[in-house]
Amino acid sequence: MNISIRPEQPADIDEIHELNTLVFGQENEARLVDHVRQGPHFIPELSLVAYSDNELIGYILFSQITITNGDYRHQSLGLTSMVVHPAFQKRGIGSRMIAVGLQKATDLGYTDVFVFGHEHYFPKFGFLPAARWHIRPPFDAPADVFMALELIPNALSNVSGIVEFPIEFSVI
């Protein structure tokens, strides 16, 4: 299977919305992506689509988040959305999108990434529980599903606090 991964283009937006709705069975995730795309925390280079034979089969979005601790603020990235069309799942497409996205994030100068995700899937990319750095989400969540990855060694060594999600996240 020939798969290409590239930044989204305006012509992809409707298909991205449809794919999110299909995979999640409702529109919350699709609306979140649409809201993030229109907000100040959107990074066009980190909104990526996977195509096979001119068919959109996957999507991944990283967006800016902030870790706060009193007056201290650390700018970071959150893996905001990742979907693969059901007919193409379990073929490594999600892994390829993550690898490409993490490399692009590193190339853009980002030092770390956070994700809410499956505790057995994301560690294979190097994600560890964020609690290791005394970083937590703004709501109760199991520690093993809220994870962080240092793109640069020791990027989080002097960071602790609470993740502050952009207002766009209030749609879910």
Structure characterization notes:
Strands 1, 2, 3, 4, 5, 6, 7, 8 and 9 form a 9-stranded mixed beta sheet that branches. β3 (55-69) and β4 form a beta hairpin. The longest helix has 15 residues, at 93-107. With 172 residues, the protein is α+β, with helices and mostly antiparallel strands. It is built from 3 helices and 9 strands, in the order βααβββαβββββ.
Relative strand content: 35-45%
Number of beta-strand segments = 9
**Shape, per Cα inertia axes:** globular
Q: Please give the largest β-sheet.
A: 9 strands, mixed
Low-confidence stretches: none
Q: Please work out how many helical segments DSSP would assign.
A: 3
Mean pLDDT: 92
* N- to C-terminal distance: 34 Å
What order do the helices and strands follow? Answer: EHHEEEHEEEEE
Structural class: alpha+beta
Structure described in brief:
Helix content is 22%, strand content 36%. By secondary structure, it is of the alpha+beta class.
List the helices and strands and how they pair.
Elements: E1 3-7, H1 13-24, H2 28-38, E2 42-52, E3 55-69, E4 72-84, H3 93-107, E5 112-116, E6 128-129, E7 135-136, E8 146-150, E9 161-164
Parallel strand pairs: 4-5, 7-9
Antiparallel strand pairs: 1-2, 2-3, 3-4, 3-9, 5-8, 6-8
